[in-house]
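Sequence in, structure out. Go.
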Amino acid sequence: MLNYDMPLYRPPSEGNNLIIQATLGCSFNQCSFCSMYKTKDYRARPLEDVFADIEQAARVWPEAHRVFLADGDALTLPMDSLRAILDKLHACFPNLNRVSAYATPGNILKKTPAELEELAARKMPLFYVGIESGAPVMLKKITKGASQKGIADALLKAREAGLKISVTVILGLGGQKYWEDHIDGTVELLSQAPVNYLSTLQLYLEEIAYEEFMTKFGEPFEAQSDLAILKELERLLINIKPPAPVIFRSNHASNALALAGNLPKDQARLVAEVQGAIHGENAIRPRFMRRL
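Output:
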């Protein structure tokens, strides 16, 4: 339908929605594990190009009601640009009820509370934030560009502005040496900062990111086995105490075990399912079926 600047990424839950590229690449693009935008330089697309894509999409799919603004962090755009894009979307899609985008903690912290509230009011209420880990040691090793406190402050700020936040955590990120620090720091973060959705991914290093990850890790990295990954997931689910109800998913294609439930309501069931997989009672996804 549109001539996208590839590669193009979106969260799994946005798979059936219209994607409009408002920016290209990622404004930070230094996370050592991430290969998504290594081949792109960040830039904001000219508004006339974005508008042309919106108009073209509206001719083909006028009934579209959800839009994802790509690429990596459209929230870097100034408010005047975001207002213009949202106004254009509302004008072209009469059934529009939600716009979403990726965001970094830094993106959120740079916007004022009033600006975040305005985005929610303009039907841009959902942002996807890859926190990856809450452990200070891991955030440094992956050059996340954010601290545990900074991430927590951003999540709380978004919540107070009426936004919904979907966060992702990467299992296996700490390897065999730091897995407990990784999970315990993540539990600490998510037990103090409210989020609406929590999803896990499983570490998979593509060739383009492999050397950077190993170099920035700063010491030999020993990858976790599937059994060890399941124990990470078990530790996460046993110990997390979310300050507000959270929809939990581990159904991304990279995961060894697909789970779905609500925290804390389904906490015991989810833990039992992980423990069943640990003891070989529940099947895990074969490796050949996993992907990013």
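Check: The longest helix spans residues 175-190. Residues 79 and 115 are 7 Å apart (CA to CA).
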